[in-house]
Amino acid sequence: MERPVRTPRRTFRYATRPSLLARSVWLCARHRPASWWRLPLVAAWASQIRRHRRARLEIAGRAYLGYQASLPADAYFGESGVRGALIWLAGADSVLSLGDGVLIGVGVQLAIAAGARLTVGSGTFINPNSRIFCAEGISIGRDCALSWDVEILDFDAHEIGSNGEFRPQSAPVRIGDHVWVGTRAIILKGVEIGDGAIVGAGSVVTRSVPPRAVVAGNPARVVREDVDWRHVPAGSGESDG
Fold this sequence. Notes:
The protein is mostly beta strands. It has one domain (38-154, 169-224): UDP N-Acetylglucosamine Acyltransferase, domain 1 (3 Solenoid), CATH 2.160.10. Helix content is 6%, strand content 30%. It has one helix and 24 strands. It has one helix at residues 18-31; strands at 41-43, 48-51, 56-59, 63-65, 86-89, 95-98, 102-104, 109-112, 117-120, 125-126, 131-134, 137-140, 145-146, 151-153, 161-162, 165-166, 173-175, 180-181, 186-187, 192-193, 198-199, 204-205, 214-216, 221-224. A nine-stranded mixed β-sheet has the order 1-4-7-10-13-18-21-23-24. A seven-stranded parallel β-sheet has the order 2-5-8-11-14-19-22, with no helix packed on it. Strands 3-6-9-12-17-20 form a six-stranded parallel β-sheet, with no helix packed on it. The longest helix is centred in the N-terminal third of the chain and has 14 residues, at 18-31. The protein is globular and about 55 Å long.
């Protein structure tokens, strides 16, 4: 019987800095007091969590906030924000659910409104200066790669209509497993992106994307189908040749 092929998990070498440990312990004690000693959050010094008293922060394993600022100098290549990550659980019953090994980059903002839920699957990373604003529901699958300056919104701050009729202000966003979202892409409300898909850099996604398809442009359209992709960190020396 043939065994399924497993993708090896990414590993990261974290620098041991007193400021990193102190900030991690403080955030865990404040927001995850029942398990603070396990350090479910590892956080760069400038990282913040703003949480309504009735909001929930769920972590399955360990998540990393502002992870680039915590790495040795030779362990990361790419854009870096100037501050730590910000998690903002803005209202009652706001929920952020993070899988094991989620990496949240420097300058990333995750904002969840009252009654809304944002879910990020295990092994997914969100690179610096990306922003996710969740007013209803956003789900991001496992092992996804969100590049720099990505924006995901499930709502419009202003309603647009005609003849006195207006479209719903918000609609859930679902991003499947192993999805790659390119630099400065924007994903808007009501979109579903299938497993294994690729969103090209600078794309504006206004409609759903089939699994394993590449979309690009404004508005984004399918430019290629039945693709496979893998993550090769910049500067790793790996190549296909």
